[in-house]
Amino acid sequence: MSWFVYCLKHYAQFSGRAGRPEYWWMYWVTVGIGVVLYLLSALSPLFNWLNWLTTVAFFIPSLAVAARRLHDTGHSLWWFGAWNLALIPLGAVGLYAKAYMPDPLSSPGLGLFVALYLLAWLVLALWITYLLCKRGDAGANRFGEPGPVSPG
């Protein structure tokens, strides 16, 4: 839990490096908070709003620790950005198909394109997950010295 607090203290620090515990503690605590608030939203719409607010509040710290974690493996945040930006063309194809095709699912070419695109997107997602899970570079790399070993 102290890694989570450490990440919040360094909420907008995109430079430097972060070890695996720093990134994964931030990830799992934010996911846990989100799941709890999502389940509580069945009781009251207030929890739905709280879930939305915590998602917005944790966006920058999560992105910053992801950048530092990728730096630890010698990669930049652009890998993470490319994975998210890759959904834009897929959304554009979906909007086009909805607007100009009476039955988009009947077009075999469109279905093949979407399937291959999603497969490529999945491969990129697996690559980024691998980078987030692998051991960081030993010693200094182009992003600096290794991150702290303990959150102190």
Describe this structure in words.
The protein is mainly alpha-helical and 152 residues long. It has one domain (2-133). It is 69% helix and 0% strand. It contains 6 helices and no strands. The protein has helices spanning 2-9, 20-40, 45-72, 78-85, 87-100, 108-133. Helix 2 runs antiparallel to helix 3. It is flat, with a radius of gyration of 19 Å. The model has no long low-confidence stretch (mean pLDDT 88).
Q: Summed up, what is this model?
A:
By secondary structure, this protein is mostly helical.
Strand-residue fraction?
under 5%
Structural class: mainly alpha
Helix amount: 55-70%
What is the CA–CA distance across the termini?
12 Å
Number of strands: 0
Reconstruct the topology from this structure.
Layout: H1 2-9, H2 20-40, H3 45-72, H4 78-85, H5 87-100, H6 108-133
Helix pairs in contact: 1-2, 2-3
Key features?
152 residues, flat, mainly alpha, 6 helices
